[in-house]
Design brief:
The protein is mainly alpha-helical. The protein is built from two helices and no strands. The radius of gyration is 27 Å and the shape is flat.
Length: 85
């Protein structure tokens, strides 16, 4: 069996296709791993919150305070931005 130039061209494009598929596969695997990590943390958070109701109340208060701080920060930034002009 002899290798013709057209076979070499097909092999070259095949290896380029394989490289592209490997890159795509690595990207999909990475995204899947990230999703698995997020799901693991979500499950952990659910267990912690269910086992300690007081923590849930504390987290709710913390989130409310964070929202207030963000609102104050936004109003301060906008006020100082427009005061310059």
């Amino acid at each position: 069996m002899t290798d013709s130039p057209s076979d070499a061209g097909l092999q070259g494009s095949g290896s380029a296709d394989n490289l592209q598929l490997n890159k795509e596969l690595e990207r999909v695997i990475e995204a899947t791993e990230n999703t698995a990590v997020q799901l693991t943390w979500m499950a952990y958070d659910m267990v912690v919150l269910r086992s300690d109701p007081e923590r849930q109340t504390s987290l709710r208060r913390l989130m409310e305070e964070i929202r207030r701080c963000e609102e104050i920060n936004k109003s301060w930034v906008y006020k100082n931005f427009y005061d310059r002009f």
